[in-house]
Amino acid sequence: MNIKEYIKEQRLITDGAMGTYYEEKYSEDTVIAEKENLKNPEQIKEIHLEYLRAGARLIRTNTFAANTMFLADMQEVKETVRAGYEIAKEAVTAFQAENGKEIPVFIGADLGPIYDLDHQDYDNVLQEYKEICDTFLSCGADCFVFETQSDFTYIEPVTAYIKEKSDAFILVQFAFDKSGYTRSGLSMQRVAVEASEMENVDAYGFNCELDSTHMYQFMKNLKFSSDKFVSALPNAGYPYTLRGKTIYSNNASYYAEKMKDIAALGTDILGGCCGTTPEYIALLSGELQDVPKATKKIENVVTQEVTRTPSIFEEKLSRGEKAYIVELDPPFSEDASKVMKGAEDLRKCNVDLITLSDSPMARARMDAGQLAVKIQQKTGVAVMPHISCRDRNVIALRAGLLGMHMNDVRHFLIVTGDPVSRADRERVTSVFDFNSIKLMQYVKEMNLEVFAQEPVYYGGALNYHGANPDAIIERMKRKAEAGCGYFLTQPVYTEEDVERLTYIKEHIDTKIMCGIMPLVSYKNAMFVKNEMPGIHVSDEIVNRYREDMTREEAEEVAIELSVEIAAKLYDIADGFYFMTPFNRTGLIARIIEAIRQEEERR
């Protein structure tokens, strides 16, 4: 009997946790349980046997973390995977010998997520998945279990790769937090719909992070669009830390009762994740032994249509008109009066967006999002706060986005964020749950569901100075695929800058807001030339300033230069992005007016 035939006739009970149970049973210290496949295979085999004796009929190989995130290299990964599969086979053989008959038991080749946060690129991660799958296939694997996934980025190509080589059964499981979303922002309903439609996925479901109660609360509100097999493998509960050790409460009876409720929803595959033990699986198996398998309620699932009322900024870009964005820096203190006055100056100048940097150079300033709300409410000018990945984890980022959306902020510039300086690293920690692309993907998902009635419009930064322009373009394309609608560049000064941007514009269809940062004195020009990496200020530009210039004389040069730069960029720029030096919004207003006058003459 193959696994599909088995599940059609009856529920499939899986094993419970391996890692947390191994620690509880054999180790006082936190270990990477997968390494024990090579060090202590008999201990891993014994755990498999305990689960089989408890009633599990699908055991997962001890390979969840068998990847280069946790192991030294691919050689160790492959050795660990092979050992893990062989140990599981030995356990099945021993179990059947104990019972004197061949009881249907299945082995799931277990794969956890391999995250890519700029440490590796997409192709490298995909190749690693493929090599792991090839190793399992060489061992005879005919069932694959992908666990604790957060999106479909690698699931689609990897499952297609497996199906090209084998008719293996594939189960894909996703992890959700207590708000009902994956790490990448997908809702449980969204996952259910998309997984149901994937021809290479035989079963989908949910594991880890949630306890049985919360998993049931989310699953009971699910609309199943097909009768594809569904799994549920919740945690034993929510852990606490005692003396540096993660501990789960022993609530096996309660868990089994809630799993009975989950089974009544028509769930086909049931088992446990972190904190569960053979005791949990034994009680689950006993609880369901005489309960008939339930049928899922199949419904038509209508996907909510995304609508957007375009902002003035969006409308200008869509019509091919030049848009004007001006950046203001939040203050270092609680006094925002200068910034508010500057915002009022910009309102009179009819700028399209005011953008606020989020602690550039990793120095603490007033929160850009909260200041953006105040500016928009006081001036009526649309705002675009920068959202940096450096300082907030996924919970704080989501909370901030929800709060700003509530306050009618609809534009964001999503950036990875400047690194913390070496001098501050002992007392200031970076977070980086996301990079800019990952956060864009997350916001894209929020637009599809949470913000579906009023989606946000977000852009990204364009550092056009890199050595390989084609690599820059490729990264821009990845951002565009993640929903990035436009790009803001670094300041442009030279002919070489213009040529590079022209090349980029010719090779990607996107909106580019070209950066202009006026140089307001000889000292300022020298500082930017020598102290700001990646910004090219030529000697010719510096020589247009004198050390003994008055402020008024220097500003006239700044206006002339800015208008000249804008003229050179005019044919490729979809608009201009002005960085305000020393809060001199009056100067920016004069430059914008001068550029507009040049536009009228064209």
Biggest sheet character = 8 strands, parallel
**What's the shape?**
elongated
Content-based structural category? alpha/beta
Report the helical percentage.
40-55%
Strand content: 15-25%
Calculate Rg over CA atoms.
Answer: 29 Å
DSSP summary, beta strand count: 18
Strand order of the largest sheet: 1-10-7-6-5-4-3-2
Compute the average pLDDT.
93
Unreliable stretches, pLDDT < 50, 5 or more residues? none
Number of helices: 22
Give the N-to-C terminal Cα separation.
Answer: 77 Å
3D architecture notes:
With 602 residues, the protein is α/β, with parallel strands linked by helices. 43% of the residues lie in helices and 15% in strands. It has 22 helices and 18 strands. The strands form three sheets. An eight-stranded parallel β-sheet has the order 1-10-7-6-5-4-3-2. Helix 4 packs across helix 5, helix 9 (212-219) packs parallel to helix 10 and helix 21 packs across helix 22 (585-601).
Can you describe this structure in just a few lines?
The chain is α/β, with parallel strands linked by helices.
Ordered list of secondary-structure elements with their pairings:
Blueprint: H1 3-9, E1 12-13, H2 19-26, H3 36-39, H4 41-54, E2 58-60, H5 74-99, E3 106-111, H6 122-138, E4 143-149, H7 155-165, E5 169-174, H8 188-196, E6 203-211, H9 212-219, E7 229-235, E8 240-242, E9 245-247, H10 252-263, E10 269-270, H11 278-288, H12 312-319, E11 323-328, H13 337-348, E12 353-356, H14 368-379, E13 383-388, H15 394-406, E14 411-415, H16 436-448, E15 457-462, H17 469-481, E16 486-491, H18 495-507, E17 511-516, H19 522-531, H20 539-542, H21 551-569, E18 575-579, H22 585-601
Protein name: Bifunctional homocysteine S-methyltransferase/methylenetetrahydrofolate reductase
Keywords: Cobalt, FAD, Flavoprotein, Metal-binding, Methyltransferase, Oxidoreductase, S-adenosyl-L-methionine, Transferase, Zinc
Binding site for Zn(2+): 208, 273-274
